[in-house]
Design goal:
Distance between the termini: 42 Å
Shape: flat
Low-confidence stretches: 59-67
Largest sheet: 4 strands, antiparallel
Radius of gyration: 21 Å
Structural class: alpha+beta
Mean pLDDT: 74
Number of helices: 4
Strand content: 15-25%
Amino acid sequence: MALRALVALNSGDLMLLQFPTSVPSQVKAVVRNRTGESLGLEFLTQLPPESEAMVRSGFLPGSVVGGSPELRTSVRSSCNPQTLYAGLRRKQEELRKVEREIEALRVAITLLT
């Protein structure tokens, strides 16, 4: 993405951008190139879905607050400690699997050389 800005940033500099969405969201980006006032950016993080951003911020619009109890429950349940721990455990297991795959590739490289 290109950004036109009067800031003193050069290639390799990190920046934090805030988008003026209904719930302000921030993303990290690194400047990949610069031509005059135009910066070529690579985003290091993604904008969360709007519903997730609302949960993170604690902001729930009137339509959700006044909405059905099922909708309010589904929004709250996506951010409880049990769900977060389950996600953490799943990611840790995925990391262990990738580490085993990397080790297997290292062994294969050694055997092939």
